[in-house]
Amino acid sequence: MSLTPSNGKPTLAAIARLTGVSTPTVSKVVNGREDVAAETRAKVLAALEEAGYQSPGQRRTASGTGVVDVVFDSINSNYASTVLSGILDYASEAGVEVLLSVTGGLPAARLDVGRRAQRMLDEGRAGMIVVTSSLTDAHLASFRRRRIPVVVIDPLNPPPADVISVGATNWSGGRAAAEHLLDLGHRRIAYLGGPESAECNQARLHGYMSALMSRGVQVLPDLVIHGKFRTEHGVEGLTKLLSLPEQERPSAIFAGNDAIAVGVLREARRRGIRVPEDLSLVGFDGTALAEDSVPALTSVTQPLHDMGRAALRTVLRQSRGEQIDSHRVELATQLVVRESTAPRPGIRAGG
Amino acid sequence: MSLTPSNGKPTLAAIARLTGVSTPTVSKVVNGREDVAAETRAKVLAALEEAGYQSPGQRRTASGTGVVDVVFDSINSNYASTVLSGILDYASEAGVEVLLSVTGGLPAARLDVGRRAQRMLDEGRAGMIVVTSSLTDAHLASFRRRRIPVVVIDPLNPPPADVISVGATNWSGGRAAAEHLLDLGHRRIAYLGGPESAECNQARLHGYMSALMSRGVQVLPDLVIHGKFRTEHGVEGLTKLLSLPEQERPSAIFAGNDAIAVGVLREARRRGIRVPEDLSLVGFDGTALAEDSVPALTSVTQPLHDMGRAALRTVLRQSRGEQIDSHRVELATQLVVRESTAPRPGIRAGG
DNA sequence: TGAACTTTCGAAACAATTTCGCTACCGAAA
DNA sequence: TTTCGGTAGCGAAATTGTTTCGAAAGTTCA
User: pTM for the full model?
Assistant: First the structure.
């Protein structure tokens, strides 16, 4: 008799035995049919739970892998692809699959949060990683309500306290960049940052301001320009700075990321401004862009790869029900000096 | 008797009837088991095809949203992320999800093709896009056996005739690049290509050779160097070319892709060789790398974004059972002249 | 030649799902 | 109160698909 639940793996028949219903009824419960009384369903579900029953479909895939949703704003940047490769890296180690989507900067309209969350539950996805994208608190709450683990990397908006976020020490990075320029004798240092409201941008800005203020250098509003994290912003930003009266122009620029810095570089070349002789430039991110540009960019390196890994690790931990100590994971940034910074013109090096 | 194939929906038993084998055997074929003779399998597959059989799993998920598996070799390149963004683009239009994985250049060891194919069937995935990665014919066959649509983008090995591949007009691109250099008066033109066996590399090489030969310029084996599609290969390649006796050194280099060209650029700068004054350089791919490098690279632009879109569109068509006319989709390349090419030293421009 | 494998396949046992009809209960009409 | 149509809940049986295991045929090697 093969119906004995003491048998190796639980079968529908065994569950039926246990609960005193027929096999078809159990089958219906498993498949979510309507024609089962609530009471009966509850009883069967309890037994299924206890016996750890898995449908044949599940059996095949359960031992294999979970699926993690990853949502990017856009993947057309070194930043994005480095983070992504960190995620994929860890995914292959941990044996989970990565379901990738991009919002294209849309305010998550296409995301259709409700349906998405439902699908994730239906298909037993382990959780979700949101990169940079601006999900509203309402969206995040919708996932939290359903107990779907969510980790945010470099959130644009500060997430609610109970959503875990992964980022870098942006403040220290900003401060290190500004201090480096101050050390080189620069006093008029511009900040060509990212979106004003973005949290990471705020942190970098305040690190920069903190460095200036602690050296008694005044922060000039004209030298702080926000915009997008894109090359064009660098081009326009430099143009704007050069339209200032000559004595107010900066001798150094701290760019909010490498793409902006590359834009500055491009516009500077077009105008015949030499970097670093006439203008020092520090980027942020430390992507391949920084290494490959000419001159190679001094940049604050973010451990993007590791941030991706950390994010996925955290999601998987959550999905296993482990307690997470901290709601904010920050990995260290590091200033890497290359060729785009030099002492202020008119100042002797080492002076 | 319910075995009659004239019945409503096709069943395994009906197929078995038709082909004169047993039900279990048909089941095995459907599930891609190995213990079925090739001949028997073919017969059964034909019957399955004709009857339009669908497994219960397929039946259930067919109506839902599809998932497409995308396999990259690596995503750390402009090439990869541009193709990927094309895929994601179309995915969001078509309402399918993208499951991304990277092989990391492993010979598909981690891929575990059998299990993967099974999962794809179980979960009703629409199909698979393989980018650049070197899947063996055996792997591809394993998917074909289970009638999982597969499209390969820029395959390293020429795929079996019945696997659809998407690529660009590499031959014409190679020819256009070489002709451009010939037009500028160059006669000693090196080709710093990709992996020798890679199909796209072969096509570019032969385009280049064809251009040279049609102008009566000899193709010199010393000036053709194969390697990886990576920056380092550019550095090493230029070093090798410069180790030739002076009168044998090339005055122009056609690089197999932009990354290689950037390597050449870097090494040239280190050695004080001016591009394009001393050395003309043409890249391939037309990624952001080409635009951002200094000097901006003349490059053969591939419509990478569109290739991604086309690949996904083709997979989805296949999965809907539409007939695909061609087993090879080629999108047009275009030579974009920027700053890295100039007339051969000693030749007057326009002369 | 024959022993030891391998390959290929199907009978039979299993597992799961679907169909269909029985039963019990409910509320309205007689 | 009785009757009757409707319906929700359930399971028997039929149907569909999968797995196990051994038989038959072929292959390799001594």
Answer: 0.79
